[in-house]
Specification:
Number of helices: 31
Number of strands: 24
Largest sheet: 9 strands, antiparallel
Structural class: alpha+beta
Distance between the termini: 173 Å
């Protein structure tokens, strides 16, 4: 019974199997009979699916958000920040509507250089990811700005390339350190782009999240290849062992010595076949073993130019720049070469495929590869502070006459050309130059001054060496400048040489008395080191004397006799001549007279020499006595500011007496600048003050240089200071100059001196980089449109190479004549005679004033008696 049931079950199973085989055979026959129809239907379905996917892809890729990442000059990226940025981009790539095809789930990093900007860094992602990518992990040092899609003009020559990862599936690109910046080779490759030639270079890095299905297939393929490789190696090893066991010399010698071999009886041999080595999954898969941070990547490069050959050369340099990532895996371009011709994306039909990828950002798996975020770290951030970014025209303009620019220096570009960098007049507020004597500081300042004069601006140049006016005269002798030039040359020697004058106590313009008094007293105190601790009595005596003489001059101007004003040399008379003092004090108000009548007589006689000695030194110089001893000034810095004059002042040297004169000039500049508060802001014409040898002016008790940089910007005043040793300035002065400087520059010098400048350029230039600079070479940083540029290595400009085409050597005589006339210059002998006779002129005015006062008093008393 049981056997019968077993047989019946077997028959049923056999019957079912036969039925299944018949059904499969029938289906196969039907399929074969209708193969053309099935193929046609399958093709139609596939084509329809592809059309739908293409439309959905185009729709998804048309909804893109574009952001430009703009780093600050101090931006630095850590590996953790780059990892977070990469993961954020992967998340953004995977966002989008549910119907978005996988090929459209991608994000693009676009690196673009067009000769206008060095390297723009953009992110193009699905619109739905905008809120995700607008906040970068790089913090406040990278600004994300929305920008429109790129729109390029047509260029005559375009080349294309697709770079993909070549190497074993799990092998990695080289781990490139973040310092120096991994983008530096790419920046160097596009550094010499020229916008006027239509040059353009773009690198697009497309990233897409790892597909689980594709990743599983790739892992399976990698493991299969590894196992097959292990089996091949095992077979090769077995063959080697077999061959070694039969053919080796030791085996042959052993057979000769074996008696069994002599009798002809073969000896059995057995060689164990080695087993294939164990395949370690993590070792074989490498980067494919870990899914987090794994992305598909394709790199597209396009270069264009209007000039033949430049685009091809640029593409070759970009390909060389990508070699920085070459390691076990490398980035290499797709295509093949046949002789001198290379077939690839520049040829049909591949060109259309490339252009589609370029314009839409669609991912093509055949053009990509697998990479981890760490491998692409250099491409997932903008350029950092460690990158040497070239200075292009858009960053810092090239100097051209008539464009309201100031030439700063010759900068060598990546292609070897030198370009004369310039800053805008309104951007250049204060400048500090430091460095070795004779290394080009003064020449650079002269070029600045001539350029500013040609821009229609006013300036004052204090040249303690006395020969700079001869250098610049031929470049200032132009009709639109010549009438604005005034020359005060204190290096004269002959009696017929022309000399202007300056009465520091002149009240002809109606200045407030206290401002003039404060400017003169502060100048003397700063130059001589007076303060309330070191020389309190001298400071008080000098203040009261100047105050009295300023009051006398105000009355002389009010009486319309400005030629009878007192000068600084009359301080001696008011302190030592009782008659002169009595006449001068009589013109003062009652409160001021109290000090002269009550306190001055009680002062010891030895208190006066401290005040009188500097005046004696000034008076001992015939030129200074003539320059400072005349009543009505030809020198008026406030008028020069308001009228845009070009004033050249040449002291006779840099000794103590000349430093006192320069101190007077600088304090008067501060006073005149502050007095411009009575002008509306729009009417305050900019005025530059060029000052050499800052050390001679800066005493511990003087804050004039700091006050100029801190207070005069709003009044249109600018200061250009030069010094050999910046660290010898007072700390407060040095801090104010560096804090407010629009331009910092230094030439060669001692490491200690240079360090004061390089400390403002951390992690860029060291003092040792500058200490050995050649003559005329500088390192400088500039401010352009509110952004700091540099420090840059530049060659100092020279007058002849910048303005040689504007030189007018035949008109220098007319320039000097006009400059002396504008300064009110007279022969030295006349000025000297006028200065020596001035005390008598003042005494005469005071006597007349006293007589009028007495007569007026008597007349008033007589009228009172009559009235009584």
């Amino acid at each position: 019974m049981e056997s019968h049931m077993t047989a019946s079950g077997a028959e049923q199973t056999f019957s079912l199997a036969a039925s299944f085989v018949q059904a499969v055979t029938a289906c196969a026959g039907w399929a074969w009979a209708n193969a053309w129809w099935l193929a046609l239907i399958g093709s139609a379905l596939f084509a329809g699916s592809e059309v739908v996917q293409r439309r959905l892809t185009a729709e998804a890729l048309s909804r893109r958000a574009c952001l430009e990442l703009v780093p600050t000059s101090e931006f630095e990226a850590s590996p953790e920040q780059i990892w977070r940025q990469g993961m954020q981009l992967v998340r953004a790539a995977g966002s989008g509507p549910w119907w978005t095809p996988r090929r459209a789930r991608c994000v693009r990093v676009r690196l673009r250089a067009d000769g206008v900007r060095p390297l723009m860094y953009r992110i193009e992602a699905p619109q739905t990811a905008y809120d995700l990518i607008k906040q970068t992990p790089y913090g406040h040092r990278v600004q994300a700005k929305p920008v429109p899609p790129v729109a390029d003009k047509h260029r005559g020559h375009v080349v294309r390339a697709v770079f993909t990862l070549h190497g074993k599936p799990g092998s990695k690109l080289r781990e490139v350190p973040l310092d120096p910046d991994p983008l530096q080779p790419l920046i160097d490759a596009v550094a010499d782009l020229r916008a006027e030639l239509g040059d353009l270079a773009e690198v697009c890095v497309d990233l897409s999240p790892a597909s689980r299905w594709h990743l599983a297939v790739r892992r399976f393929q990698a493991m299969q290849r590894a196992r097959e490789q292990a089996r091949r190696e095992a077979r090769q090893e077995a063959r080697w062992l077999t061959r070694a066991s039969t053919d080796s010399v030791p085996v042959a010698v052993g057979r000769m010595l074996d008696p069994a071999e002599w009798n002809g009886r073969p000896r059995g041999q057995m060689v164990m076949s080695p087993q294939p080595r164990r395949v370690e999954r993590d070792v074989v898969l490498g980067k494919l073993a870990h899914t987090p941070g794994l992305v598909r990547v394709q790199i597209l490069v396009r270069c264009a130019s209007d000039k033949e050959g430049r685009a091809e050369s640029r593409l070759a340099r970009i390909a060389a720049a990508l070699d920085v990532y070459a390691g076990a895996s490398r980035l290499s371009s797709l295509g093949f070469a046949v002789g001198p011709v290379r077939f690839g994306p520049n040829w049909r039909p591949w060109q259309g495929r490339f252009d589609e990828q370029w314009s839409t950002g669609v991912m093509r798996p055949a053009c990509g590869g697998w990479a981890h975020i760490e491998e692409l770290a250099g491409l997932l951030k903008p350029p950092t502070a460690a990158a040497r970014v070239p200075v292009l025209e858009a960053d810092m303009p090239t100097y051209a006459l008539g464009r309201d620019l100031l030439p700063q220096g010759w900068y060598r570009e990546a292609d070897g050309r030198e370009r004369l960098l310039a800053t805008r007049e309104d951007d250049t507020l204060f400048e500090v130059q430091s460095g070795k004597a004779g290394w080009g500081k003064t020449m650079r300042a002269q070029v600045h001054a001539v350029a500013s004069a040609h821009n229609g601006r006013g300036l004052a140049f204090v040249d303690p060496h006395g020969d700079s006016f001869d250098d610049v005269a031929r470049y200032l002798a132009h009709p639109d400048i010549i009438d604005r030039v005034a020359l005060f040359d204190l290096t004269v020697r002959d009696g017929q040489d022309l000399l202007g004058c300056w009465n520091v106590l002149d009240m002809s313009d109606g200045q407030p008395r206290h401002e003039v008094t404060a400017a003169v007293v502060d100048a003397f105190a700063g130059a001589l080191g007076w303060n309330d601790i070191t020389a309190p009595r001298a400071l008080t005596i000098f203040t009261k004397a100047v105050e009295a003489l300023v009051a006398v001059n105000a009355r002389a101007v009010a009486a319309e006799v400005p030629e009878q004003q007192a000068t600084i040399f009359h301080v001696r008379a008011i302190l030592t001549d009782s008659t002169f003092r009595r006449l001068a004090v009589a013109t003062l108000d009652t409160d001021t007279q109290q000090w002269w009548k009550g306190s001055f007589p009680d002062l010891p006689r030895d208190a006066l020499p401290t005040v009188l000695n500097p005046l004696e030194r000034l008076a001992s110089s015939p030129v200074l006595r003539a320059f400072l001893g005349c009543p009505v000034s030809g020198y008026d810095i406030r008028h020069a500011m308001d009228d845009g004059q070009v004033v050249w002042i040449c002291p006779s040297g840099t000794g103590p007496t000349d430093r006192l004169l320069t101190s007077l000039l600088v304090h008067d500049f501060l006073r005149a600048g502050l007095s411009r508060r009575d002008l509306p802001q729009r009417q305050r014409r900019s005025f530059r003050f060029y000052l050499d040898e800052l050390i001679s002016l800066d005493q511990q008790s003087s804050t004039v240089l700091a006050e100029i940089t801190e207070q005069l910007r709003k009044f249109g005043c600018r200061l250009h200071g030069m010094t050999q040793l910046l660290h010898r300035l007072a700390p407060a002065t040095r801090a104010a100059l560096i804090q407010n400087a629009s331009c910092l520059s230094t030439t060669a010098g001692s490491v200690e001196a240079i360090a004061q400048i390089t400390s403002q350029w951390p992690d860029t230039i060291t003092p040792h980089d500058i200490a050995g600079l050649e003559r005329w070479r500088h390192y400088a940083s500039f401010t352009v449109d509110g952004k700091r540029i540099g420090p840059l290595p530049i060659r100092g400009p020279e007058l002849s190479e910048v303005f040689g085409h504007r030189a007018e050597p035949r008109k220098t005589g007319a320039l000097r004549k006009t400059a002396h006339a504008n300064a009110g210059a007279l022969p030295l002998t006349e000025r000297t005679a006028m200065a020596l006779a001035q005390e008598e002129q003042v005494r005469q005015f005071l006597t007349t004033r006293s007589t009028q006062t007495t007569t007026s008093g008597h007349s008033a008393a007589h009228e009172g008696e009559q009235y009584a």
